[in-house]
Amino acid sequence: MTTVAPPQAQPTSTRFHAIGTTHRIHVTEPATLIDATAIAREELAQLDLAASRFRPDSEVSRLAARAAYGPAWVFASPTLVHYLGEALRAARLTDGLVDPTVGAAVAASGYDADLLLVQRRPAVAHPQHVESVPGWRRIDLDPASRRVTVPMGCVIDLGASAKAAAADRIAASLAARFPGGFLVNLGGDIATAGDLPAGGWRIGIEAASGSLLQVVTGAGQAFATSSTQKRTWATGVSDERRHHIVDPRTGRTAASPWAQVTCAAASALEANAASTAAIILGPEAPDWLRRNGIPARLDSLDGTVMTTPGWPEADR
Amino acid sequence: MKTPAAIARARALTVATIAAAALATGGVVVHLADDQGTSVVAGTTATTGTTTGTTTTTDSSSSTTDSNSTNNNSSFSGVNSVNSNNGQAQSATKGS
Positive or negative CA dihedral for A108, A113, A119, A122? Predict the structure, then answer.
């Protein structure tokens, strides 16, 4: 049950960098901040070792290397089992619009290394071919035995779900261990647990430029934003730029009218699944979000703003 | 509770069984260590036959699967409406 912290409790926070982006941990009890941050860092280190596409020693990289020659399986670590399970849940929630088997397609689109390296490479070096997406239903995950089987050519990419799932897991872990309330913001994916600060958590919606678009109250909801304006790179073909969200139906960078979509949900995983799916769905996104009961703010490329029921009216 | 020696014997027997089964079907077996320090067996499934049906004897002490991993819900959970706030943001959601 969520309770409200004493009025004098003012959240305090710390910021750190890991897995290629910046994170922030907020606590209502300052004495818990150091331990809370250490737990978050450790979880992200475990996640990186299990799921980074850019580390040759990660579990997903080793599995992808074996799958290059045929269907392959592995006994995975509990960390990978958890995050792959969450990725498959995101796939179920979105009927495959968010698919963890897009790794090869994402790499083929040019995002095959740390983003800073991709952005600094000569644009002409980016490949132009398209990789098909095997499909999430072809991953066999047995949590009891920790056995993961993938089809030939499958490269697992947990980039669409893992940060959000980690925010959920860390927030829940902190609330179970320590007194007070916690807001875990992993690169913009926000989960909260434990006591609410007085008045709730004040959550900003930030544009890719860094400007603040809106402030809303978080009272137990989780938040996530997906953007077509971040993690972008030039292809060298005309003025084409690509971004990191691939439509698994085509294997290509999703063509979307949205600059970014922000969603609220019961968990960061659900919020992130919804916002990513909305980018991919394009014009169909508002209806899809309404049907799924997702409060959302959709900022279009032309500057107009749409909201779905449950999201407060936006000033712009 | 199993003794360390008994666990080691069981694990060695399991690995040997898996290796024999995989090699018999044309598969490849690779021994690795996972991030928990436990023994891991990985393989490439043979394309011409069935593979290791005997691969379920993992060490129970290391099979701490999170219950969330087995959440099979295919619909979004309900969530309360979001309210506007006139204050200064404590934290921001943004695309990454």
Answer: negative
